[in-house]
Amino acid sequence: MNHRSAQIKPGDVVAVKPPHQDPFLGQVLYVDERNSPGDSCFAQVIREEDLAIISINVEWVLERVPGTGQRVTC
Asked: Is the pTM of this model over 0.90?
């Protein structure tokens, strides 16, 4: 698992900047942590502006929006 994938988890809201595209906000659905050392780590996010599900490289994550993430209520 690389350093960035350890910092995001499902439910987090993140700022993403793919190469040659405008940045966007998205909510993390899934983080693939099964990769080998040296491999890129991928995640799926829901892009906020159009609710599209996008696969991203976690290296594209600029930052995590503080105070977001999964919450369990009873």
From this structure: no
> Strands, E, within the chain: which ranges?
13-16, 24-31, 42-47, 53-57, 61-64
- Integer Cα distance of 56 and 41 in angstroms: 9
User: Three-class SS of residue 28?
Assistant: strand
pLDDT higher than 80, residue 62: yes
Is the CB of residue 42 less than 8 Å from the CB of residue 32? yes
Residues 42 and 56: beta-carbon distance below 8 Å: yes
The CA distance from 74 to 58, in Å, is: 32
* Token reading at 13: 């809201």
In a domain, 47, yes or no: yes
CATH code assigned at 39: 2.30.30
Instruction: Give how many domains the chain has, as a whole number.
Output: 1
